[in-house]
Amino acid sequence: MYGDRLEYEANVLKQLIHPNIVGFKQFSVDPPILAMEKASSSLSDLIESRMMQSGDCPSGPFPARRIERVALDVAKALDYLHEEKKFIHGDLKSANVLVFGEFEVAKLCDFGVARKLDTDGTVEGSYIGTEVWNPMEVVLQQNGIILSSV
To answer: Which residue in the list 73, 91, 110, 120 is annotated as catalytic?
Structure first.
């Protein structure tokens, strides 16, 4: 099961070559090992570290230029995924955004639940992302509420 999920992710990553998507290096079946390019940290780790630096008093937001850099890089990766490769990431969250150096570049990682999009833009298969990070349309659909297209 675990090996199958890693192999699925490896097969997705092999198809994705973009400066804002983590680079695939190699996959081994036995034992299952997925090698990818190494980043300095995840955005989640950086946020947590910043919160812990000052105890109960956070040291404030990241500088605007760093926030802008991450937002732009993630947007570029998502545009490539959706428009060129016809994939959805499926688990977009700060832990799956890798930051290289001192915010020189941000890259998406963890494509283990990525799904192909049909020609009409609907997701092939079921959506599996991390529940507390699910987009509103998934939450509504899981509760029996179908959004109509505008």
So the answer is: 91
